[in-house]
Amino acid sequence: MGKISVGMDTFKMSDLSSSKSGQRPNCAADWTTSPLHGQARDIQDMTFDVAGHKVSVTSASRAELFDLFRDMLAKRLGFAVATLNLDHLVKLYEDPEFRTAYSAHDIVLADGNPIVWLSRLAGRPVAHMPGSDLIEPVCAIAAELGVPIAFIGSTQDVLDKAAIRLQARLPELKIVARIAPPMGFDPDSPQAKDVLKQAQAAGAQLCLLALGAPKQERFAIYGRTTVPDMGFISIGAGLDFLARAQMRAPRILRMVALEWLWRMLGNPRRLAWRYVKCALILPRHAVQAAKSRTPRR
User: What would the pLDDT profile of 51-65 be if each residue is shown by its tens digit?
Assistant: First the structure.
């Protein structure tokens, strides 16, 4: 049985040595040497069964996660971060290549509220950390450490506007590449190699990927394999929100877990069936979560 992603307490420094062709080095932070070591951690990662594979969402808190990002960026260690929601779970059932990409990610976070609810039902609560909410805190760490970053995805106009807004808030932030691949971009094509080379040539050490699922996750693992000391974080529509090319749901709707409704009403023809499919797999995973519940100590 395959295992998709790993929890933060399974990272090994021995996995950071140069990998052989076709092999991916694991995440660059060992539990015993990371800034998180020594803190009480009785909570296991939340695991989802998907087509014979395991999807493990880290149980780390927001503070622990950002400490880990700081540690990895300071040491110039590579990593790949995915953010799981119900739409991704649907796609994982349907797309073997997507499952393969997820299996190679170092950290999986909970992007959607249903993922958080299911984790609580299983007695293994995880923090709600959408990709969009990672942008500014991670960029603040990169600015403080002098780590150059690249934007990859969306449109050139969006990337330029997002860069202006971010650098207005974080003047020390070094955005060294803004790469908007054309429509139809294939993360397995020679074009992907060119995009990665552009980012690398510009000196980027962290890439924020706004390509949408499953392209961004597949590209992240291509990059993770090709440039093992570079970081990749999939952020979906985060840069579009930052550039105000798309309007994110008001905070009050996000607080009551109705962001999905806001998005669907904005584009019902594209999103209605997506959310129906998400609703259809929710009972299955609720049953799995209840059966696997870890008793509180």
Answer: 888 889 999 999 999
Cis peptide bond prior to 214, omega within 30° of 0: yes
Coil, strand, or helix at residue 232?
strand
In the chain, the number of structural domains is 1
Q: Which pLDDT tens digit goes with each residue over 252-291?
A: 988 888 888 888 898 898 889 999 999 999 999 999 999 9
Whether 155 is covered by a domain: the verdict is yes
Determine, yes or no, domain membership for 106. Answer: yes
Among 165, 199, 163, 200, smallest CA distance to 181 is for: 199
The secondary structure element, H or E, covering residue 35 is none
Instruction: Return the DSSP state at 244.
Output: T
Answer yes or no: is 78 within a domain.
yes
Q: 208-218: string of b/e by CB count within 10 Å (b at 16+)?
A: bbbbebbbbbb
* Residue 130, domain extent: 2-291
d(CA 97, CA 208): 21
Strand partners, 139: none
Distance from C-alpha of 59 to C-alpha of 45, rounded to nearest angstrom:
5
Assess if residue 296 is contained within a domain.
Answer: no
